[in-house]
Amino acid sequence: MDRILVTGGTGYIGSHTVVELQQAGYPVVIIDDLSNSNREVIDGIERITGIRPDFVEGDCTDMQTLSKLFADYPDIKGIINFAASKAVGESMHKPILYYRNNLNTLLNLLDLMGPNGVKGIVFSSSCTVYGEPDENPVTEKAPIKKATSPYGNTKQISEEIITDVINAGAPFKSVILRYFNPVGAHPSAEIGELPNGVPQNLIPYLTQTAIGIRQELSVFGNDYDTPDGSCIRDYINVVDLAKAHVIAVKRMLENKSDAKIEIFNLGTGNGVSVLELINVFEEATGVKVPHKIVGRRAGDIEKVWANPTYANEVLGWKATSTLADTMRSAWAWQLKLRERGVM
Ligand code: UD1
Predict the structure, then answer these.
(1) Which reaction does this chain catalyze (predicted)?
(2) Bridge partners of 30?
(3) Is the CB of 219 inside a 6 Å radius of any atom of ligand 1?
């Protein structure tokens, strides 16, 4: 079978996708600079699938590293590009890092795809491109709003770069996937999210609070125009999300669509508030999450959730995990991290 290059394949969504690719029979090579992950993730992938993916430690912004990788693996036919910096807050302080990492990686890959006979690239985008949407649920036709962070801007620019390169006649296809809020961990608890330092995202902060690493979860605002006043998101299980990548890459490699570029929202279609999510977690796990209401977080969107109909119909993909199961998986992963002495 054609080999898939997974950039950022030891990261959170990348590692779950490598598992699904291998379970679908694809040989994989990962490139990752381990800037926000570690080698043990590869052991976790091997324990789940029985297959150790090939791994190259390297930085995708370095053209020589990537050229050598394509020379070493002439059977690469598809790319899934996860290699990117992803913290919204950090991007406000380190914009050059974000533009350099996220855009140079993409440009290098696009540059090397044609000469190396790669048929397609799946790109990790985000619902952040919709900003504060005029209507929910959000379809792919909703207008793109001006980005509020360099991180968000790299996603918008990346989508434009891919579109321009393909419209200019590049000999490959692309599927752009706009994720809503990916959460949870593999049900085996062998892999999951490994936040660096104090988590900025809700679920890792919540599970660290539940286990006692953090004292209290701050709920950022209860005065939004939502039923309980807290923000609404579409929390999508990371394994469900990973499966969509396998379908997307297969679709390109097997030429199942005439379109050279396709864009899909990946969400559940359900909007869930922060307070509701805390309740679901507590009920699913039986563990209490001490929390307090604090002021709004600058830059937060009030409410956004997906209309995933297009992905459901065209990709034949649907999020199937319940939120309760997803919360149990996040908790099992947090317990595993403690067992391993990681945190
Ligand atoms: C953000 C980005 C998104 C990115 C994602 C992962 C924007 C608009 N969104 O999503 O593109 O893919 O991070 O990095 O840039 N919350 C609390 N307390 C906390 C943490 C979060 O109440 O301690 C609330 C937030 O206010 C929000 C929800 O939980 O309503 C989810 O927050 P978070 O997990 O940080 O993700 P987003 O901000 O939605």
Answers:
(1) UDP-alpha-D-glucose = UDP-alpha-D-galactose
(2) 6, 55
(3) yes
